[in-house]
Amino acid sequence: MTKTIAVLGGTGLLGWPVALRLNEDGFQVRIMTRDRQKAEKMFDGSFEIAAGDPANFRSLEEALKGCQGVHISLPSEVERTAAKLAAKAAAKNGLERISYISGRTVAEENRWFPMINRKFQAEQAIRESGVPYTIFCPTMFMELLPMFVVKGRASVMGKQPHPFHWVAAEDFARMVSAAFKLEEAASQRQFVLGPEAIPMREALSRYCAAFHPEIKKVATMPFWLVKLVAAVTGDQGLKGAGELMSYFEKVGEQSSNPATADGLLGTPATTLDIWLQKQKGEER
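RE: above sequence
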C-alpha cells in the first residue's frame, strides 16, 4: 500500500523540496496549506492539496485523515502551536511517524532565546505524543544565502566568526524521505551537518561571486544598526533576522555528532560549490 505523508509547510523554502522528494520516492504527498492557489501553482496533479490552518486542531485532524505520516516544516511563529496540535491529531488518527525540522542548537541551555524555546517545546510535544518520531537538527541551509543580498548589497549581520556545516535542502529532503521508510529512524533526534565548515562571510562571498559578480565586497551590518533600521522602518522581518543572527554569533553551531544520521539516512554530500553550480544550471 502506498503511504500518504502530509507536509505542513510544503510551499515553504524547506518544505517544498521535502514534498518533492517524498513524491519522487513513491509516497503519496498531501500538502496542507492556507493558500490553495499558491500550492496548486507549485505542485502538479500527483499531489493532494488540503486547504486549512495548521494552527487549528479540527483543520489539522481533517488533513491528517488517511495519512500514515506527517512532516512539519513551518515558520517559527506558528510551529510550536502547530507541532503540539499535529502531535495530538497524529496520535488520535493512529499515524505511524511524525518528522519535524528543529535545529542543531535546540537544547535546554539555549532556551533563553525565544525561537529555540519554541522549538524545544515543539520537540517535547512530539516526543510525548506516543507517536514514533524523527526530529531533524540541521545547521545552516545553503538556500538561505540569497536572503543576505538586498538591493544590490550583500551584508553579514554582526561579525559571525563561527563556521557552519552548510546543508543543501536537496540532501536534507533525501534524508527525511529515507527516515519515513526506516523503522530504525523512529524516535530519534538526527543531527544533520553538511560536508564543509564555512564561515558565513566566506559562504556569502562565494554565493555573490557566482550570482552577483558586481558585488565586490560583503559588508558588515552591526547589530545596533540592524535594530535601528528595523525600528525606523517597522520591518519585523529585519528585526527577527537581527535577533537570530545575534544568537548564532553567541552560540555558534555547537559540536554534534552526525554519524548516526549519516550512517542511517546517508551523508549529505553537496558542497557549496556543487550547490552553486546546480543553482546556476537551474537559473538557465
